[in-house]
Write a structure and sequence with these properties.
single chain; 447 residues; alpha/beta; six-stranded parallel sheet; 44% helix; globular
Length: 447
């Protein structure tokens, strides 16, 4: 470990990972190995069904989005890249005029677009192209038919899931304002798979919590109203800027663990139930079937995972809630839990539920972390795509962190799906190991 890259490291106190021992977090600054925030477009363009994401970037940006999304050549997705080429970089073309031309042609071709995001990238940030002013200028031209917003997905400024945070934060200022007489309303914040959103909507309705809204909405015309009578639950742990923007509008965040696994889901729902005065007997009756389904499904997978050692590289900011789930509900051992950014306030409940002495690392110096991972030889490593193949070649079992974002994993009915994401690589390694061991010649002859 390079001392110059370590800001603070102290032995973990034997008190659980609460505020009293957050000095035990290993903070590193150095080489990183993460996707940029443009990747968030892949799930956001599916969620907001009348939105379009226009990346202003290079051919590398276009290749990243196309490859990560896996879009077929004949498909017409709701994202594209306005390529910044040599003429733009040399100042031979007016970038704003070129952008206006591209946007006009896009909207003529795709009249179903109602919300257009101009997404900044590393190249647009480097040449100081002011996309926020461009979005304002083009909005004046195309409103009310099309609204244009801007956010940055640049790898200079964001990592992976922060693209969603930047996108939602850009939408907060255009949300309607609630009236002073309106009753308290619950807003669930964070992009969820439609099936998960529907499950949560039914559960809230059964609890008697009416008028629950989800942000982002499936349609840009269905923006939720926000004001001092709005309380919100974060469904994802990487929405710091969005939460701050909502609080600036007067909304109040409900503190809770995140709805991953049975325990996290129950406490997340309980935070809303407590705020809306749902009787305990009603809460227990409504959540009992889901808790039972999750317990039954997890009991089948626990023997495969219990006692296995897991190491998290920082990638999605989902690491701490998932580590809590793996440790408490499946009996896995946490070797190191790395996260790109540790938001103490939003994760306070999660940190308190981690085992005492858990090594947490914030930020990344990838060479140092690789050294620690190799020394620990964990049973499974959660990491980005760029590290997975080299580690597999060294004989380690890996899980792609990006799968944890693309796969529906929230709620009771997805708890087993989340567990299987870790069980399957271990089973695959077991089978490969069995195949690679040649049986003795005597056994071959008997066969």
């Amino acid at each position: 470990m390079s001392a110059q890259n370590v800001i603070a490291i102290h032995p973990a106190a034997d008190l659980g990972c609460t505020d009293v021992n957050l000095a035990s977090v290993l903070k590193e600054r150095g080489q990183r190995e993460v996707f940029c925030g443009l990747t968030g477009i892949i799930w956001l363009h599916r969620k907001i069904q009348d939105a379009f994401f226009l990346v202003v970037g290079s051919r590398t940006c276009a290749h990243l989005i196309q490859s990560a999304a896996g879009v077929m050549i004949f498909a017409e997705p709701r994202f594209a890249t306005a390529i910044i080429d040599e003429r733009d970089l040399a100042g031979l073309a007016d970038c704003n005029e070129e952008l206006d031309r591209v946007v006009t042609r896009l909207l003529d071709r795709r009249p179903e677009i109602k919300l257009l995001f101009l997404v900044g990238s590393c190249p647009s940030e480097v040449i100081k192209l002011d996309l926020s002013r461009a979005a304002m200028r083009l909005s004046q031209r195309f409103m009310p038919k099309v609204r244009l917003l801007n956010y940055s997905g640049s790898g200079i400024e964001t990592t992976f899931t922060q693209g969603e945070d930047a996108c939602l934060a850009a939408m907060v200022p255009v949300l309607p304002t609630t009236t002073e007489q309106a009753p308290a309303a619950l807003l669930v914040v964070g992009a969820l798979a439609d099936v998960v959103e529907d499950q949560f909507a039914r559960t809230f309705a059964q609890l008697g919590i009416q008028g629950v809204r989800f942000f982002p909405p499936r349609n840009s015309a269905d923006l939720p109203a926000v004001g001092p009578n709005t309380v919100f639950l974060l469904a994802q742990p990487f929405l710091a800027d969005t939460a701050r923007a909502l609080e600036a509008r007067g909304a109040t965040r409900l503190s809770a663990p995140f709805p991953l696994g049975s325990e996290g889901t129950t406490q997340w729902l309980q935070a809303a139930a407590t705020r809306f005065n749902v009787p305990t007997v009603v809460f227990d009756a409504v959540t009992a079937p889901g808790r039972q389904r999750a317990a039954t499904a997890l009991a089948r997978l626990r023997p495969q995972l219990e006692g296995k050692r897991v190491f998290f590289f920082p990638d999605s900011q989902l690491e701490i809630p998932i580590a809590r789930f793996l440790s408490r509900e499946l009996g896995m051992q946490l070797i190191e839990v790395g996260t790109p950014y540790l938001h103490r306030q939003h994760l306070s409940e999660e940190l308190a539920m981690l085992p005492a002495g858990t090594l947490l690392s914030e930020g990344q110096h990838v060479e140092n972390q690789l050294d620690r991972c190799r020394a620990a030889r964990p049973d499974i490593v959660v990491c980005g795509l760029g590290l997975a193949n080299p580690l597999e070649a060294e004989g380690m079992t890996t899980k792609w962190a990006i799968e944890l974002v693309f796969t529906p994993i929230h709620g009771y009915d997805q708890a087993a799906d989340l567990a299987e994401l870790f069980a399957r690589p271990l089973l695959r390694r077991l089978k490969i190991g069995g195949i690679s061991k040649s049986p003795p010649k005597a056994e071959l002859l008997e066969a």
